[in-house]
Design brief:
By secondary structure, the protein is an alpha+beta fold. It is built from four helices and nine strands, in the order βαβαβββαββββα. It folds into two domains: 76 residues, Roll (2,3-Dihydroxybiphenyl 1,2-Dioxygenase, domain 1); 73 residues, 2,3-Dihydroxybiphenyl 1,2-Dioxygenase, domain 1.
Length: 179
């Protein structure tokens, strides 16, 4: 069994409308759906123990097909700082072209910048910023690898699983052979 593609990631926000405006206005990611979760689900599935809990859920479409699912709970809890060395999610990443221009664009928009653009050992450039709730956003320019990954897609995955590129199986050998 294999997954078909990456679908979405979820983040909890303090202000639904502010988050929607941020991702839509700054990154061009429109809101494509909204739902209010039923009280029973908020208490049971989400584990919010409150007399009258609410949860507004929105789906923000990222160019290329993935979605950021945002949750606004009432009552909410204070944000916790994300530590890189703590097990769990740390950030979302957008593929962009020209990280220096993106850095300047975000700074002009008043977005909190965490780091300046830098070159990775593999040749792509990246930097980090924060959304209004403090969630980390990586912006990376994969350079030529963007096209390789886009055009090779499934073929590239098949080739690399068979060791045509660098053989990563030394880090993890699947328990059963895949075809």
């Amino acid at each position: 069994m294999r997954v078909r593609s990456f679908s979405h990631t979820g983040i909890t926000v303090a202000d639904f409308n502010r988050a929607v405006r941020f991702y839509w206005d700054v990154f061009g990611c429109p809101l494509v759906g909204v739902s209010d979760a039923p009280t029973e689900r908020i208490r049971g599935f989400f584990g919010v123990d409150a007399p009258e809990p609410t949860c507004k859920i929105g789906w923000i479409r990222v160019p290329g097909g993935a979605v950021i699912e945002i949750f606004e709970f009432r009552p909410d809890r204070p944000a916790a700082e994300v530590a890189w060395n703590r097990v769990g999610l740390t950030h979302v990443c957008f593929n962009v072209r020209d990280t220096s221009r993106w850095h300047d664009y975000l700074a002009d928009k008043g977005v909190e910048i965490v780091s300046r653009p830098e070159r990775s050992p593999h040749g792509h450039t990246l930097f980090f910023a924060r959304d209004p709730d403090g969630n980390l956003i990586e912006l990376t320019d994969l350079r030529h690898m963007h096209h390789v990954l886009r055009w090779l897609g499934p073929l590239g995955g098949w080739l690399f699983r068979r060791g045509v590129g660098q053989d990563y199986r030394r880090y993890y050998e699947p328990s059963e052979p895949r075809s």
